[in-house]
Amino acid sequence: xxxxxxxxxxxxxxxxxxxxxxxxxxxxxxxxxxxxxxxxxxxxxxxxxxxxxxxxxxxxxxxxxxxxxxxxxxxxxxxxxxxxxxxxxxxxxxxxxxxxxxxxxxxxxxxxxxxxxxxxxxxxxxxxxxxxxxxxxxxxxxxxxxxxxxxxxxxxxxxxxxxxxx
Length: 166
Ligand code: PNS
Description:
Elements: E1 3-8, H1 15-27, E2 30-36, H2 47-57, E3 64-69, H3 73-80, E4 84-89, H4 92-108, E5 113-118, H5 128-136, H6 147-165
Parallel strand pairs: 1-2, 1-4, 2-3, 4-5
The protein binds 4'-phosphopantetheine.
């Protein structure tokens, strides 16, 4: 039984994340999508909102669970009994950070390995940060995120706009 964690902020989930989730869940028996609960990162969406959106967009995948976590990823891996951490690599710019993270995690817990999937070419430019920026300026985000997420993003941006206009 191979259990893997795909950890991230998912603020919000994009088609790039979904591509990694769909491909990984074919390789492993169980995939836990670990949603980082860390307010220091000042996420746009609360962890509950991010979990809800992920559940919605992965509801057809029977071996995928969406679970929030805080603290060290390696402690979460120990708690859930995961053998592998999966991360997506988009471009060379991701490499240094991912290398450091995987080597540090391996030093902390040698029984957990990190495996990388290179993102599909059509999503290699995509990030949650750019999607939020496009949404903030009223741009079309439907090609970057599933419809359910696009709706939530527009709602969030409208609410923020109303707050800023007060
Ligand atoms: O989507 P992100 O923001 O690139 O995901 C980063 C994440 C959540 C994988 C990383 O920040 C993380 O694992 N945080 C938990 C804290 C931790 O374990 N830090 C030590 C890793 S070197």
